[in-house]
From TrEMBL:
Residue stretches making up the Aspartate/ornithine carbamoyltransferase Asp/Orn-binding domain: 158-304
HAMAP family named among the record's database cross-references: Asp_carb_tr
Name of the protein in its database record: Aspartate carbamoyltransferase
Pfam families on file: OTCace (PF00185), OTCace_N (PF02729)
Amino acid sequence: MQKLSTRHLLGIKDLTPDDIELIMATAREFKEVINRPIKKVPSLRDVTIANVFFENSTRTRLSFELAEKRLSADTINFSASGSSVKKGETLLDTVNNILAMKVDMIVMRHASPGAPHFLSKHISANIVNAGDGTHEHPTQALLDSFSMREKLGTDLAGKKIAIIGDILHSRVALSNIFALRKQGAEVTLCGPSTLIPRYVNELGVKVSHNVKETLAWCDVANVLRIQLERQQIKYFPTLREYSLYFGINKKMLDDLNKEIIIMHPGPINRGVELTSDAADSHHSIILDQVENGVAVRMAVLYLLAGQN
Ligand code: NCD
């Protein structure tokens, strides 16, 4: 069996291009499995996985849980609200208590960037980062790449991908930038200058502040939510003004003389970054992304379990 170069999935930054290819190929096989009448395989029958969520989640959490069940793993779920974290327990103590119950793998979402990297230095279980603050969200980037490849019918070398919206606060943006550049895609970030971090030039991407020009340039537009919950200061005057300058509607897509693909990791703020007629149009593959998320997470869990 081909192996990943790592025991954990902490971020896309640490993956090699070969790791990404292996995950894509494995996910294609699992996508076939989850579309069969019997959607389950016994691959992780002896593996116990804890989903440890210190931050809110709908899609990511359900998707991991379903992926684990489809692989026949035993699962337990932990969410910080209602737990002893409120009583002052440290992250390491919380996780060590979970591991004492003989857990093999931890899927963790945490508000602090680097939390899964810290854990990986102290515990022996495999760790999957399900989002660490504004840092990385590797499985989202992998499912995004999988969905782009599926729709474009090729790999992503030379493809033009735009990431539009709140880049500064988005772990989806950073993981996508790493993933897309490792696959040879060209990347343009588009948004108000206050929401584009200064270090991005070092990541080999272009920056635009003109959404119409960006749409005319790209093959795929990955549209991100304005993360108001992470904004302590004002980055733009009003949401209405944001949507006027950076929001995307169906007419803008129909006026392009070509077909482009619209993606969004969810949750959508309808009427802010995307109007409903754009989000629900034939351009959009938003629900395909959700379906592919299960297959990609099955691939990641299966390959990491094989590292032990
Ligand atoms: C994203 C997240 O939580 O990072 N959503 C997701 O995982 N599908 C993006 C967001 O919250 O806007």
